[in-house]
Design a protein that fits this description.
- The chain is of the alpha+beta class and 140 residues long.
- The chain has a six-stranded antiparallel β-barrel with strand order 1-4-3-2-5-6.
- A hairpin with a 4-residue loop joins strand 3 and strand 4.
- The mean pLDDT is 87.
Length: 140
């Protein structure tokens, strides 16, 4: 069983009860910033919900439904689950957790995708307007 894993944070599109903006807070976080996980047994939508808070105490969302029960049970059993911010996503975030009280570490960044000349040519096309740039063959 892995001691560290990355988890999705969902619900960032919803505002907090105090009016603060979850997406704004996510954009203010840097990779490695501490994150707090808080059980919400009285949550009306899901009694196993685990809220995710930034180090400033602002909620940024919830753990995904697939993981909140498992992570929540570990926290309930007294296991020291620590978390850090990993990255922002289009509609939420990714956090990195360590399940045995250790400090979570960020995974290495993914390699940059290699784009071919043909893919670049296709990306500049605009089918709606009828614009297709001239193909320029590579100098071999």
């Amino acid at each position: 069983m892995p001691q560290e894993l990355s988890l999705a944070v969902v619900g960032a599109l919803h505002p907090n009860a105090d009016g603060t903006n979850r997406q704004f807070e996510i954009r203010m976080l840097n990779p490695g910033d501490p994150i707090s996980l808080v059980l919400e047994p009285n949550n009306k939508a899901d009694s196993s919900a685990v809220a995710v808070f930034s180090f400033r105490g602002l909620q940024i969302g919830y753990l995904s439904a697939e993981r909140c029960g498992w992570i929540g049970s570990k926290i309930s059993q007294g296991q020291d689950v620590r978390a850090i911010f990993q990255a922002a996503t289009k509609d939420g975030a990714i956090i990195r957790v360590h399940l045995d009280g250790g400090s979570p570490t960020l995974p290495p960044p993914p390699p940059e995708p290699v784009t071919t000349h043909d893919e670049l040519h296709e990306n500049k096309a605009d089918p709606d307007s009828g614009f297709w740039p001239d193909y320029i063959p590579p100098d071999d």
